Amino acid sequence: MRGLGVSNGLCYAKVLLYEEQPIIITDDAKNAEEESHIFKEALQVVYEETLALKEKALSEAGKDAADIFDAHCTILKDETMITPIKEIIRNGSSAVKAVDQVLSDLIRTFEEMDDEYLSLRALDIKDIKDRLLRKMLGLEGINLGKLSESTIIVAKDISPSMTAGMDVKNVAGMLMESGGKNSHASILARTLEIPAIVGVDGLFAKLSNGDMVAFDGETGEIYTNLSKDEVEAFKKKKKAETDRKAKLSQLVHEESLTKDGQKINLYCNIGTPDDVAKVLEKGADGIGLFRSEFLYLSRKDLPSEQMQYLSYKKVLNAMENKPVIVRTLDIGGDKEVPALGLKKEENPFMGLRAIRLCKEKKDLFMVQLRALLRASTAGNLHIMFPMISSLDELRWAKSMVAECREELQSEGIAVKENLPIGIMVEIPSVAIKADLFAKECDFFSIGTNDLTQYTLAVDRGNEAISSLYNHFNPAVISLIKMVIEAAHRSGIPCGMCGEAAANPEMLAFLMGLHLDEFSMTASALLEAKALARELSVKECEEVVTMVMNLETADQVEKILKDFIEKRRNKIC
Ligand code: PEP
Ligand code: MG
Prior knowledge:
Elements: E1 4-7, E2 10-18, H1 32-60, H2 63-76, H3 79-90, H4 95-111, H5 116-120, H6 122-137, E3 151-155, H7 160-164, E4 171-176, H8 184-192, E5 196-198, H9 203-206, E6 212-216, E7 221-223, H10 228-249, E8 266-270, H11 276-281, E9 286-291, H12 305-318, E10 323-327, H13 355-360, H14 362-375, E11 380-385, H15 391-410, E12 421-425, H16 428-432, H17 434-438, E13 443-446, H18 448-456, H19 474-489, E14 494-496, H20 504-512, E15 517-520, H21 522-532, H22 537-548, H23 553-567
Parallel strand pairs: 2-3, 3-4, 4-5, 8-9, 8-15, 9-10, 10-11, 11-12, 12-13, 13-14, 14-15
Antiparallel strand pairs: 1-5, 2-6, 6-7
The structure holds phosphoenolpyruvate and magnesium ion.
């Protein structure tokens, strides 16, 4: 079985299926006084429980987790919710019916909100509604606050109060049928460092209480019916992971310096503002890629200028003055935005994607640029354009930024001067002519995910040809070298935000080429730091010479692998 890994870690434990009894709303009111009493009592008990959850979250998971319950307490005391419920009860309805009606309306209002953060709050209100209803109907669920042994909680979905009310020391992992990367359950799982997977179809049909299950919260793989030997092997892997993590975490406050004392800039890739917590936790030097299109995905409408402005500002503020490279919309390819109603294409990766789409839909692009420029004064913003294939596109995109800047200034809105503007180098036409582009950019960031697919004509998502998709291919590594050298000839920095930046074998090669910034998923950062500390730039320069004249991807990979293996220590 497989799902979406949302909280890293290996887990092997006994399954507990958490299935709540369904809430059935009835309207058999006793009398108004009695119904009002039922409501008030439930409200008070749920409020007190929430206060207790808040304290528990504060001591176990920190302020961010506690804030969720603080907000729940505020909602439970909110007269704009309480008064209409009382009114409906006075008019003859049952307490259960009144609560259901008022809170369901409130949930709908939040769900329809433009702002992603606010629309997600509908989940909090649903959590409160369910708890009030369960209390009034006397439906007690399984008590997750008292687990006798290490357990994997398996549920359709897990609400914030369930997560925080859990006996965390005995929760080995969580598997959910629904949920997204940024649902509260996922955020809390990451905060509590509980491995978790969401979006697994048919969990309840495939698992039973007491089954022993292993899973990997990073890859989303779930293993059932393991043999004795497989269990032993998994446990060994887990023990090694625990030991290694403990050692890696000691590096958070260490500088990422090579053996010969050179600083290696380690940045993170993010998709939403919530991802910044991890970036800070790992002590990254900056954000090398904010995939802004994630603000557009998985929603029914388009995010407003204000919603985007708040998102960018939040990230910039949190990163203080560290660089934050926001990539403008990279929609198309495998990333669809339902609200745009785009036509299906035969070849979406080579079609109306990213900057090409922004050119077609200038208004869409302008909304994003306005939001970015408004947020520019909040920190060290860098703007990056994706899928640039010609100088014309670059010049057009830069002219749009200039137009937006003028527009905002005429409205009296401050915009930061000298904002660095750069491009993703991910199309061979740009890599080959990188010298020309470097003269008109403030920085480059190499997108190896696309550069590899376009150089080798191998669709990055096609399973059938995945063995051909290889960033060690001599043509790809030659292009990478050309791009970094071209940037340096023009005196601009060159980073990398494709997956190759996190590849341990690539690290030596890229360090030898003096790549200025390595941007990767937060969970890979400390490992890269540990490895960089074992290498010297001087010896990495030699490895570059060794691989440049090789003929096949296998030969390149072998040389780089051997080089790294000799220098790896216990933690990297
Ligand atoms: C890339 O192409 O390397 C990249 C980082 O962008 P994405 O994976 O979002 O296309
Ligand atoms: Mg790309």
